[in-house]
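Run log, item B.
One chain of 212 residues. Sequence copied directly from the ordering sheet:
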Amino acid sequence: MTETMAVTERDLLLVVDVQNDFCPGGKLAVPRGDEVVDLVNRLGRRFPHVALTQDWHPPGHLSFASSHPGRKPFETVTVSYGPQVLWPDHCVQGTPGAEFHPRLAIPHAELVVRKGYHAGIDSYSAFFENDRSTPTGLAGYLRERGFTRLFLAGLALDFCVRYSAEDARRVGFDVVVVEDACRGIDVDGSVAATRESLARLGIASIGVEAVA
């Protein structure tokens, strides 16, 4: 944790995948995932500028275990762009599971970034598809708007939050993860690996109360 950080006009809160399928009762529920909703809402009130990400898969997406006969969720396979964790079908376009959590209340959010809509490639990061080279366009949007620092919160800490934070840093933004407003899945020690990676990259992890 660190000292208080004051929000400025050049800061943006990026709220990652606070969707029904990632909350208890959903198809790919993050343990205690719904606990982030009120914290994210509280954060949202402190930021004049907010963007939301939304997992948005077509039916039969490559990342679904159901698309690989004989495979089960959470197994890893090798695809054209490298290793891919197989997931339960989740956040399918137009389904209730893909909708934002009903308690999420950030009416002034200025942008919704949908990701994972290419049938043949997964997308954890809000900046790049999982091939690590196909951009979503978010970096250009943020630069044109004049933002220089991003605060990230949401689901899941060890996948979409982690990859978004790492890529934001890679393309030149200052990055802060509000860790107590995130929850992790923790596949094979992925939460610990996330903390190590963020620390190695110099990405600060703070609590909600440290955002002023």
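Observations after the first pass:
- The beta strands are 11-16, 50-55, 76-79, 82-85, 111-115, 149-155, 174-183, 204-206.
- The first strand starts at residue 11 and ends at 16.
Flagged for discussion on Thursday.
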